[in-house]
UniProtKB/TrEMBL annotation:
<dbReference type="InterPro" id="IPR036249">
    <property type="entry name" value="Thioredoxin-like_sf"/>
</dbReference>
<dbReference type="Pfam" id="PF13414">
    <property type="entry name" value="TPR_11"/>
</dbReference>
<feature type="region of interest" description="Disordered">
    <location>
        <begin position="143"/>
        <end position="165"/>
    </location>
</feature>
<protein>
    <recommendedName>
        <fullName>Thioredoxin domain-containing protein</fullName>
    </recommendedName>
</protein>
<dbReference type="InterPro" id="IPR013766">
    <property type="entry name" value="Thioredoxin_domain"/>
</dbReference>
<feature type="domain" description="Thioredoxin">
    <location>
        <begin position="1"/>
        <end position="125"/>
    </location>
</feature>
<dbReference type="GO" id="GO:0006950">
    <property type="term" value="P:response to stress"/>
</dbReference>
<feature type="repeat" description="TPR">
    <location>
        <begin position="154"/>
        <end position="187"/>
    </location>
</feature>
<dbReference type="InterPro" id="IPR019734">
    <property type="entry name" value="TPR_rpt"/>
</dbReference>
<keyword id="KW-1015">Disulfide bond</keyword>
<dbReference type="InterPro" id="IPR011990">
    <property type="entry name" value="TPR-like_helical_dom_sf"/>
</dbReference>
<dbReference type="Pfam" id="PF00085">
    <property type="entry name" value="Thioredoxin"/>
</dbReference>
<feature type="compositionally biased region" description="Basic and acidic residues">
    <location>
        <begin position="150"/>
        <end position="165"/>
    </location>
</feature>
<keyword id="KW-0802">TPR repeat</keyword>
């Protein structure tokens, strides 16, 4: 994944099996997986094991289909990895185990994660159906922050904002989300909702966004909220979409009207490159419809960049 506009490099899942070379590498990956509430599936194999070789492509394909899950491979006879096999009492090859962190994480990985893990399932033998089953049961998915707020009053304000947004009353929606943020300032979801409301408000050109100066102020607030979201929740794909929207909006013709002609193209290029990186992050951190939408937006950004070269 590429770097992000604020210098961070969110790491989603892996997308392909990792051949473990040492105990230290094993420990490092497990610590990261526990902290991110990502499931770890391990293939204990041996070079002389023919069934291991038969099922290896299936294991690799499952890794590709589940990029938010760590798929590891451990050679039980390796000089630097046999201690791992011994720790888990591996006696037959192949053996697959599923490890999860002991925390309050859930299917979307919204818990805190801990530094410890436990084996939640074990499968012996080259059993494609069994391997597919344990993967489907335990695989982790794209991260999404908790939508729970600090108080009932904050929840009520958020619900009001959602209702007003659906009615396309974007100014009042911003006010409702702002009230919710005052009551629950640590919710990235609220900042993302308000950022989108600013964006839609600008596009509507309604009261409060009916002059160039008013829209400029709203664009600044949109970008501030988007930056807040990605700073709070760098592993949330939707947050990076909000960032990309804000960066693209910041270079509309109206926003650049006071910029000197010789600087305008460079300003556009800089913001579009930031939007490109944000969308690459969003794609790597998303799945399903959100990923498809981010991919479509990325193609548009790339076309706009081509016109500047």
């Amino acid at each position: 994944m590429t770097g992000s506009p604020n210098g961070k490099s969110p790491i989603p899942g892996c997308g392909s099996p990792i051949e473990i070379e040492s105990v230290s590498e094993w420990n490092s990956i497990l610590r990261h997986a526990y902290a991110s509430n990502q499931t770890v599936i391990v293939d204990f194999h041996a070079e002389w094991c023919q069934p291991c070789k038969v099922i290896a492509p299936i294991y690799s394909n499952l890794a590709t289909q589940n990029p938010f899950t760590y798929f590891l491979r451990v050679d039980v006879d390796g000089n630097r990895t046999r201690a791992i096999a011994a720790k888990y009492s591996i006696s037959a090859m192949p053996t697959f185990i599923v490890i999860k962190g002991q925390g309050d994480g859930n299917r979307n990985g919204t818990g805190t994660g801990t530094g410890k893990g436990e084996v939640v399932e074990k499968l012996q033998g080259a059993d494609p159906q069994g391997l597919a089953r344990i993967t489907s049961t335990h695989a982790s998915h794209a991260y999404a922050p908790s939508s729970n707020l600090d108080s009932k009053e904050a929840e009520k304000a958020k619900d009001q904002g959602n209702d007003l947004f659906r009615k396309r009353q974007y100014g009042p929606a911003v006010e409702a989300y702002s009230k919710a943020i005052e009551l629950s300032p640590n919710s990235a979801v609220l900042y993302a909702n308000r950022a989108l409301s600013y964006y839609k408000w600008v596009q509507s050109a309604r009261e409060g966004a009916d002059t160039p100066d008013a829209r400029m102020k709203l664009r600044v607030k949109q970008l501030e909220d988007a930056m807040k979201v990605t700073d709070m929740e760098e592993k949330w794909g939707k947050g990076w979409v909000r960032m990309a929207e804000a960066l693209v909006e910041s270079i509309c013709d109206e926003s650049l009207v006071k910029v000197k002609d010789e600087l305008r193209a460079e300003g556009k290029r800089h913001s579009l490159l930031g939007a490109e990186e944000a969308l690459q992050n969003a794609i790597g951190l998303s799945e399903g419809k959100p990923k498809i939408e981010a991919q479509a937006m990325l193609e548009d950004v790339k076309k706009r960049l081509e016109t500047l070269t």
